[in-house]
TrEMBL record:
Gene assigned in the entry: 25482553
SMART domains membership: Beta-Casp (SM01027), Lactamase_B (SM00849)
Taxonomic lineage: Eukaryota, Viridiplantae, Streptophyta, Embryophyta, Tracheophyta
UniProt domain Beta-Casp: residue ranges: 244-362
Main location: nucleus
Protein name, entry field: Cleavage and polyadenylation specificity factor, putative
Length: 415
């Protein structure tokens, strides 16, 4: 048995997840993401390390994508349509449905709003998706005579999966992001008891012990309520898919309980499409949402409405979900420039922010000024609240350490 691992992205950083595993002669690419902070070709994994000749079809047996976030799928259309890979690509049905929405939204932001050179076109995205083979949970897929794969529920976002791979007598699991506790719209990660030779796992928060999720939610709701009660505006910069749905359910329920009349808005047309897909993919959600689906669809938000650009400087309190997350550009950054100078307002950052982004600078201290681009500096007088949703307990980190120590001296973790 021989196993070789080549990390092309997300090693010691968050962004452009891409890992090549050679196992018993088969070479598999796990995830094909981009780094959201970079604006040149360093946003992509260094594909030349896979093949000097550029013949990626001979160099790879397949690609497996864990979920639709851009740091896991953002480079896929570029790799297939520009670099020329035409082999099989595997992902779950929801990931196949939602990935093109994410890729097209990113393309529009980068090209139409930021004026960057186009890396891939809408036609490239469509052709890329034709190469994708959708899989269901726990469906064993025979890629070829020696290679089989199987997807397991990962939580995190709708359609996210952990992938089991078997090549001959070698077995491994690769995870992207996963959640070990259920939330309002997704269940907890689930996987069979397996005898593995290799485990590669996302570990962004692996050494961080977090407070109770409910305590974090209470603090978030308290901060939002205090802001709007004082006549302020709340900006929640978030990507349109995933955490946006979770937070909207949280706020929609809270608004109903507290009988609040302050408007909640979302800014992205992508959000409308995303909610449509979430309504269609109820089978991938939490048991609670599935149980109540016949009487109430959790993604029919009573208090959430579409935001028009003309409302940007309108008087009065409101809550606005604006894309993209991390304040990396687009409409969320435009809103931030308008609202940050007022001490009545609040910016609530709902998750990890990569180094170099405006979001990261806000969560790393209490800056009074922030450079949003080389020519623009914003006075930051607003309040800043950070609520971190994805969390993995330290016990998982310790378990992984034990696993690594075990397989370094033995062919099986259970020996």
């Amino acid at each position: 048995m021989t196993i070789e691992v080549l990390v092309l992205g997300a090693g010691q950083e968050v962004g452009k997840s891409c890992v090549i595993v050679k196992i018993n002669g088969k070479r598999i690419m796990f995830d094909c993401g981009m780094h959201m902070r970079h604006t040149d070709h360093s946003r992509y994994p260094d594909f030349k390390k896979i093949s000097d000749s550029g013949n990626f079809n001979d160099a790879l047996d397949c690609i497996i994508i864990t979920h639709f976030h851009l740091d896991h799928v953002g480079a896929l259309a570029y790799f297939t349509e520009v670099c020329g890979y035409s082999g099989p690509v595997y992902m779950t049905y929801p990931t196949k449905a939602l990935s093109p929405l994410m890729l097209e939204d990113y393309r529009k932001v980068m090209v139409d709003r930021r004026g960057e050179e186009e890396q891939f076109t809408s036609d490239h995205i469509a052709e890329c998706m034709k190469k994708v083979i959708a899989v269901d949970l726990k469906q064993t897929v025979q890629v070829d005579e020696d290679l089989q794969i199987r997807a397991y529920y990962a939580g995190h976002v709708i359609g996210a999966a952990m992938f089991y791979v078997k090549v001959g007598d070698a077995e491994m699991v690769y995870t992207g992001d996963y959640n070990m506790t259920p939330d309002r719209h997704l269940g907890a990660a689930q996987i069979d008891r397996l005898r593995l030779d290799l485990l590669i796992t996302e570990s962004t928060y692996a050494t961080t012990i977090r407070d109770s999720k409910y305590a974090r939610e209470r603090e978030f709701l308290k901060a939002v309520h205090k802001c709007v009660s004082g006549g302020g505006k709340v900006l929640i910069p978030t990507f349109a898919l995933g955490r946006a749905q979770e937070l909207r359910i949280l706020l929609d329920d809270y608004w109903e309980r507290m009988n609040l009349k302050v408007p909640i808005y979302f800014s992205s047309g992508l959000t409308i499409q995303a909610n449509t897909y979430h309504k269609m993919l109820i089978g991938w959600t939490s048991q609670k949402i599935k149980d109540t689906y016949s009487t109430h669809n959790a993604f029919d938000f009573k208090n959430v409405h579409k935001f028009e650009r003309s409302m940007l400087d309108a008087p009065g309190p409101c809550v606005l979900f604006a894309t993209p997350g991390m304040l990396i550009g687009g409409f969320s950054l435009e809103v931030f420039k308008h609202w940050a100078p007022s001490e009545k307002n609040l910016v609530a950052l709902p998750g990890y922010c990569m180094a170099g982004t405006v979001g990261h600078r806000l969560t790393s201290g209490k800056p009074t000024k922030v450079d949003t681009d080389p020519d623009t500096q914003i006075d930051v007088r607003c309040q800043v609240h950070f609520i971190s949703y994805p969390f993995i307990y330290k016990e998982i980190y310790l378990l992984c350490k034990q696993f690594i120590k075990k397989i370094s001296t033995s062919s099986s973790i259970y020996e």
